Amino acid sequence: MINRRQFIQTSSWVAGGLVLSPFLSGCGAGELAFGWVTDIHYAQAPVKWDRYFSESREKLAEAMLLYNDGQMDFVIETGDFKDEEPIPIKENTLQYLRDIEAVFKHFTGPRYHVLGNHDVDSISKTEFQSVIRNTGISPDKTYYSFVQKNWRFIVLDACFRADGVPYDTNNFKWYDTSIPEEQLQWLEMELARSKEPVCVFVHQPLDGEGKLFVNNAEQVRQVLEGSGKVTAVFQGHRHEGDYKVINGIHYITQKAMVDFSGMTNSSYSVVRLSPEGLVTIQGYRRAASRILERGTAAEWVKTV
Predict the structure, then answer these.
(1) Is residue 25 predicted with pLDDT exceeding 50?
(2) 53 and 44 in contact (C-beta within 8 Å)?
(3) pLDDT in tens, 142-177
(4) What is the b/e burial string over 117-132, where b = at least 16 CB atoms within 10 angstroms of the residue's CB?
(5) CA-to-CA distance for 296 and 247, rounded, in angstroms?
(6) pLDDT score at 26
(7) What are the structural domains of the chain?
(8) Are 190 and 199 in contact (CB under 8 A)?
(9) 261 to each of 36, 51, 229, 254, 274, how far by Cα in Å?
């Protein structure tokens, strides 16, 4: 176990010499803070592609300790929560899911999940949903929304094939990912009825084209942009991380927690949202720290 001072020393802001530490200063008036992790890929499986699957449980435990100490409003993981062995055994896969959910449950406040492609590689969505819990959300909902401190948060499920069939126990290719029409209509309605500014969470990214991105990402972006209410989209899947601003919306992809060995190679963040729309991301271990101002110009963004 490490103490709070050691946690603070792992922040990429501290490593970069930045004096400001919003974690230490606490939430300002009307500010919201949440913990964000992605691509944990926990399994007792051999190392592959620099993914140290078995180390992810300890890495996540460190993040949960920090989040409890920092009194986050909620925590969220944006997909690929668990993984599996090279030759999958369903009961083992479900046990890895139970084991990593048990660590996630150490956070004492609201907790939320986003479906990733590896979450349903050899199990069904129903089986995944039967193990995890999203606070205040029905277990049958894989896309949903919730409100905290005058912000609306929308969780999308891009684990559908282009033909609209949901991912289910190896019936898909990882690069065939889309948001089907029914979910798009739901998204439009959620945005239309929202009286709050919005942040969106999704596993497969929406800010580009190609195998790593949602097939109909441009269509989804048009819905987000048309609402005039979306401040930021938080994404996983691209393990190296990324950042773009497209038509006034920030698209932040966090580095994967599973990559590389050792606690210093973990990746997790504290995100703060101000009433004025300022997005402050304090990255820990390998995660990037950013201050993202409202607006459309990329030069308004500071990467620390």
Answers:
(1) no
(2) yes
(3) 999 999 999 999 999 999 999 999 999 889 999 999
(4) bbbbbbbebebbbebb
(5) 6
(6) 52
(7) 10-303 (3.60.21.10)
(8) no
(9) 20, 8, 39, 17, 35
